[in-house]
Amino acid sequence: MQNNSQEMTVEVIQVETLSRPGENRRIIAQSRGHEVVMDMKREMMGDDSGPTPPELLAMALGGCMVNIARIMMEQKGVKLNGLQAGVSGPIDPSKAMGLESSNPTGFAGLTIHVKLDADLPEAERRAFEQELSNRCALCDTIANPASLDIRFGWSS
To answer: What SUPFAM superfamilies is this protein classified in (predicted)?
Structure first.
């Protein structure tokens, strides 16, 4: 990040991850040397050793909101006393299990509950909320889906 008195510029970040099967229903995902274990609930033949991929997506969405809110408060010079973001939404696993369903394969919708405790004047809160919603990368990706290019490669 470069910061001059007039304008700030940032470079595009290339996100790269790799996921592979682990024991039983576990999925091991890696990015930048970090590892996350995903798993299925015991009722779905997993070991319940980590969040499911959809739960991880919801957690990432909440994390993105928390991160951007914190950055915005710092940029505004506002003291942040408390912050949390909860994400919820229904998902029908029917199609993932190979069953017919008229419901979407993924989330039918997502709700983000952001709780803020900050010294931001009441008159500035609505503008802050709108700006936060607009600056959250995952909110934008979900609300305005990115193109998806799925490529397969087979060995033997």
So the answer is: OsmC-like
| Entry pTM | 0.87
Burial of 5 (0-12, 13-18, 19+ CB in 10 A): exposed
Rounded-to-integer distance, Cα 92 and Cα 103, Å: 7
Under 8 Å between Cβ of 26 and 56: no
AA letter at 33:
G
Structure tokens at 111: 């709700």
- The predicted-structure confidence for 84-101, as pLDDT tens digits, reads as follows 999 999 999 899 889 999
Please, what is the end-to-end C-alpha distance for the chain in angstroms? 45
Q: Is-contact 139 133, C-beta < 8 A?
A: yes
